[in-house]
Design goal:
Number of strands: 5
Shape: globular
Helix content: 10-25%
Largest sheet: 5 strands, antiparallel
Radius of gyration: 15 Å
Oligomer: single chain
Distance between the termini: 27 Å
Strand content: 15-25%
Length: 107
């Protein structure tokens, strides 16, 4: 589970697991898909609008409905593809792990 939050503007975040043994083409598709979904989420749009998202080749910018979003590749390790989309560039992106809640005692 992951999330993104901002107190200054709407943002969108998506990540996908990269299966073991995935080739470079599969990894590239997942990178493009997470960028697309991040733009959709930042724009408040659903998956049905995925075909409207336009991404730059370098995945630094995405656009939908005339609005541009800055894309930030997020490093969650080699087993994940992840992107954050924001309506303006951000300088400070923080990644924090939250420890799991303790298990409930057995009845």
């Amino acid at each position: 589970v992951a999330c993104a939050a901002s107190d200054g503007f709407d943002c969108g975040f998506d990540f996908e697991f990269i299966p073991a043994g995935a080739d470079a083409a599969a990894r590239a598709r997942l990178q493009r898909w997470t960028a697309t979904e991040a733009v959709l989420k930042a724009a408040g749009r659903g998956l049905s609008a995925a075909g409207e998202v336009r991404l730059d080749a370098d995945l630094y910018c995405g656009r939908i409905a005339g609005v541009s979003y800055t894309l930030h590749g997020i490093d969650l390790g080699s087993s994940y593809a992840a992107h954050l989309a924001t309506p303006e560039p951000v300088i400070d992106v923080r990644i924090a792990a939250v420890p799991p809640a303790p298990a409930a005692p057995a009845p």
